[in-house]
Write a structure and sequence with these properties.
By secondary structure, the chain is α+β, with helices and mostly antiparallel strands. It contains 11 helices and 19 strands. The structure holds acetyl coenzyme *A. The site of acetyl coenzyme *A (ACO) has 22 residues, from strand 4, helix 3 and strand 5. InterPro entries: Acetyltransf_17 (IPR041380), Acetyltransferase_Eis (IPR051554), Acyl_CoA_acyltransferase (IPR016181), Eis_dom (IPR025559), GNAT_dom (IPR000182), NAcTrfase_Eis (IPR022902), SCP2_sterol-bd_dom_sf (IPR036527).
């Protein structure tokens, strides 16, 4: 029997989820809660797989998402996730076929780009994705952090309080709306995301019932930050040996950031902290009395994007200076390629197709790495991934596109 690529019907969900779990090296059992969760969060036209002789052997789904771009605007994204091909069926082109189908539909729908978190670096470049936001995790040696516990509390009239799961479900979404407005690379989080993270919807791979939550309130009572963490419970020779792992720390003000890091660094019995995945230029080390107490333990690409509509993307973001550029973007899949004139300034930008000669030529994946300001055109030129056709164009691209703070996507999907 030949392998059939098809969309997933309601009755297929349990077997499709089982195949997804096997592909991600998770136990093949599927709980009732997980099936209900998948059922409630599933877009039938955008959930597909490969079916061979009565079994699902590949899975792939996408869903609507909003991505915050430089300046705070949100663009509609096609979020790709749950990508697996069974070890019995790998390297026969199944992923390539499912991806082509999904990207074509996203383009027809009018999405500005597709997004994903890449499990492994070499998989998605061939489809026009490029790394757009990186991530870094630190280990903090608490004894060396040199934070005086007497000054561990907020120093600005604000306060830190624990919050239970219900409070987090209530206050988390509004805080996240304010957070993502100021964070290029951030995505929207559906209400169910808060239920999963707080254990209201139990999923086997989310350790929600081990989590503590604490919020920062400013002197005026506004919620400006939320930290979620877990700790071990390890003692040796009557001495605590615990590691605290930050699952998520998101803030809307510098005061909240300072207060929440000081809070997690001053919890008794904790010797080590894993910060979770932060922005690569996160200020965390500088909040410590001794920045060397924070050692990088992970540093990697994280959010990948696949541009689908270059004029819309370039018009959506902001620019710190005035300038113009002609970009020739190559795209083998013919979804976003062309020659575009960007005329940008602090008051806005236009981007249109043009016949003028190109200032810079690049593949769509290189454009992806430039778009949120994470990568610089000069660096990509040194790697042979951007070609300067007019002297000075790399410097103009740097001035227009690069940003003072790096983009960051704190959330996996
Ligand atoms: C957004 C997410 O969900 S990320 C999660 C991705 N999933 C996983 O990592 C789970 C484990 N891996 C898998 O399930 C599969 O190996 C997949 C999904 C990564 C690839 O599926 P396949 O059907 O084997 O890919 P397909 O046959 O279409 O490969 C196309 C090309 O990509 C290459 N490729 C695919 N996967 C990889 C990889 N992991 N590393 C390097 N190259 C790869 C293939 O060699 C092939 O190259 P070619 O065209 O030069 O021959």
């Amino acid at each position: 029997m030949s392998i059939e690529l098809r969309k997933v019907g309601d009755a297929d969900i349990p077997d499709w989820v089982r195949s997804l779990n096997v592909g991600f090296l998770r136990p093949p059992e599927v709980s009732k809660e997980e099936i209900e969760f998948r059922r409630g969060n599933y877009f039938p036209d955008r959930t597909q797989g490969a079916y061979d002789d009565g079994r699902w052997v590949a899975t792939f789904r996408s869903f609507p998402q909003e991505l915050t771009v430089v300046g705070g605007a949100r663009v509609p994204a096609d979020a790709v996730t749950s990508v697996t091909v069974s070890p019995t069926h790998r390297r026969r082109g199944l992923l390539s076929r499912m991806m082509a189908d999904d990207l074509r539909a996203a383009k027809e729908r009018g999405d500005a780009l597709a997004t994903l978190i890449a499990a492994e670096y070499p998989i998605y470049g061939r489809y026009g994705f490029g790394p757009a936001a990186w991530t870094t995790e630190w280990h903090i040696d608490v004894a060396r952090a040199a934070l005086d516990p007497r000054h561990a509390g907020p120093d600005d009239g604000g306060r830190v309080d624990f919050a239970d799961a219900t409070e987090v479900q209530e206050l988390g979404p509004a805080l996240h709306e304010r957070f993502r407005a100021g964070q290029p690379g951030a995505i929207d989080l559906p209400d169910v995301w808060w239920q999963v993270q707080t254990g209201a919807v139990p999923l086997p791979h989310v350790p929600a019932n081990q989590r503590f939550h604490a919020v920062y309130r400013s002197a005026s009572g506004a919620i400006e930050g939320l930290v979620t963490y877990r700790t071990t419970d390890v003692w040796e020779h009557m001495l605590p040996q615990n590691t605290l792992t930050v699952d998520r720390l998101a803030v809307t003000t510098p005061a909240a950031e300072r207060a929440l890091w000081r809070f997690v660094c001053s919890i008794d019995w904790v010797l080590h902290i894993r910060t979770g995945l932060r922005a690569p230029d996160d200020l965390l080390p500088h909040h410590l009395g001794d920045p060397r107490a924070a050692r990088i333990v992970q540093h990697s690409d994280y959010l990948w994007i696949r541009p689908l509509d270059i004029p819309r993307l370039l018009e959506a973001r902001t620019y710190p200076a005035a300038g113009s550029l002609v970009l020739e973007v190559r795209d083998e899949a013919e979804l976003a390629g062309g020659r575009y004139l960007l005329e940008a300034g602090p008051d806005g930008a236009t981007c249109t197709r043009t016949d003028r000669s190109a200032d810079l030529t690049l593949d769509v994946g290189a454009f992806a790495s430039l778009y949120l300001g994470d990568e610089s055109a000069v660096r990509l030129a040194a790697l042979g991934r951007v070609d300067e056709k007019r002297p000075g164009a790399l410097a103009t691209a740097g001035l227009l596109l690069h940003t003072a703070r790096r983009p960051w996507c704190p959330d996996s999907f």
